[in-house]
């Protein structure tokens, strides 16, 4: 019978190094970023004793009670194509219950649906289309459908999205495939040709205007993180969101890069000495993510945001990544919705919209789970 037991952070890292990729939210380093939560690394072991999976669990404590929501963001890392997922999930839940969990939340990293950039663009232009789900997809994944069906049958509850953004991690993202269907790596020219005319023109304009993009060297990490953060706070004030403190990004940089060198990079785009765009990029194996971004209100005409994205894409290609992930989008295609501008920016890269299975909860103690939902709704 498959089993689940605690493993050390080193064992956890070694397992992730043995597979093509996993979400950075399932790395031991992410536990250090979310240090306010109790954490645990778990290993999944088959009947033969061989490790077949791993998980980072974040335990979120209920107020005044020693009971926890056990959260596995974008995990666990398993073979999700298995015909009997309960053989892995049952020992997982049993272990988490023994650790005081009143409920478990998982985020299977399984794709269910894909749409091409052209389909998304046409959907935005169609006044009768309001949601991405109204557009016939290029692909419906049989594996994804099987995972969703199994979780439903096992009593797990899908956590719906509001306006396309889940309460935890995004269910809808935009990605640029860096390999063809047969596994052949795409070149820089291949990716550039897939972009729309505006993106290609903006990349050329940034180069003509003299925008210089570089990745931060480790010895300059602190000063470059500070420069990124200053611009990020400026962006937050302009776009009306609450910024994270600088200490959060310093911890993130240290923790992820302790797992593997260059796992997180700071990218800075300057024009005549002025910082016009700055980003954070993460890569685990064959998957590269655009994680955070900031841009100046001034000098937007030099197209620093396009320039820094292009350099991150080029870096991902050079590293052998299979996908460049621009992270979350909403599922709205309503041209009047304020979120559509973000989708249009990402669609211009010529990639594809991707829907994942989303996040799923399994209540263990139904009374505490209901109380927890009420608590969250009141916050």
UniProtKB/TrEMBL annotation:
* One Pfam family, short name: FemAB
Keyword set includes Oxidoreductase: no
Keyword Cell wall biogenesis/degradation assigned to the entry: answer is yes
Q: Which keywords annotate this record?
A: Acyltransferase, Cell shape, Cell wall biogenesis/degradation, Peptidoglycan synthesis, Transferase
Family to which the UniProt record says this protein belongs: Belongs to the FemABX family.
Q: What is this protein called?
A: Peptidoglycan bridge formation peptidyltransferase VanK-Sc
């Amino acid at each position: 019978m498959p089993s689940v037991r605690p493993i050390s952070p080193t064992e956890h890292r070694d397992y992730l190094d043995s597979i093509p990729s996993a979400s950075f939210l399932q790395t031991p380093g992410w536990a250090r970023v979310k240090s306010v939560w109790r954490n645990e690394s778990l290993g999944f072991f088959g009947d033969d004793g061989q490790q077949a999976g791993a998980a980072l669990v974040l335990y979120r404590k209920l107020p005044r009670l020693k009971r926890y929501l056990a959260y596995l963001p974008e995990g666990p890392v398993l073979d999700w194509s298995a015909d009997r997922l309960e053989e892995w999930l049952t020992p997982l839940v049993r272990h988490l219950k023994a650790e005081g969990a009143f409920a478990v939340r998982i985020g299977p990293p399984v794709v269910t649906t894909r749409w091409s950039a052209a389909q998304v663009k046409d959907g935005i232009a169609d006044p009768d289309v309001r949601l991405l789900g109204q557009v016939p997809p290029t692909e419906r994944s049989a594996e994804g459908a099987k995972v969703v069906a199994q979780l439903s049958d096992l009593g797990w509850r899908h956590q719906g999205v509001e306006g396309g953004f889940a309460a935890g991690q995004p269910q809808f993202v935009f990605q640029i495939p860096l390999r063809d269907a047969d596994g052949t790596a795409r070149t820089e020219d291949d990716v550039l040709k897939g972009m729309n005319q505006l993106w290609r023109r903006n990349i050329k304009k940034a180069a003509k205007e003299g925008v210089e993009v570089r990745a931060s060297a480790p010895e300059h990490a602190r000063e470059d993180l500070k420069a990124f953060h200053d611009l990020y706070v400026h962006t937050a004030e302009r776009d009306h969101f609450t910024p994270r403190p600088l200490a959060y990004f310093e911890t993130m940089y240290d923790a992820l890069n302790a797992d593997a060198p260059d796992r997180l990079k700071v990218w800075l785009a300057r024009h005549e000495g002025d910082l016009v765009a700055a980003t954070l990029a993460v890569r685990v194996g064959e998957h590269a993510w655009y994680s955070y971004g900031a841009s100046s209100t001034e000098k937007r005409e030099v197209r620093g945001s396009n320039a820094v994205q292009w350099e991150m894409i080029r870096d991902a290609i050079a590293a052998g990544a299979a996908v460049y992930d621009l992270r979350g989008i909403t599922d709205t295609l309503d041209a009047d919705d304020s979120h559509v501008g973000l989708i249009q920016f990402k669609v211009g890269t010529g990639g594809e919209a991707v829907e994942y299975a989303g996040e799923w909860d399994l209540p263990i103690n139904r009374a505490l789970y209901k109380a927890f939902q009420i608590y969250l709704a009141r916050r």
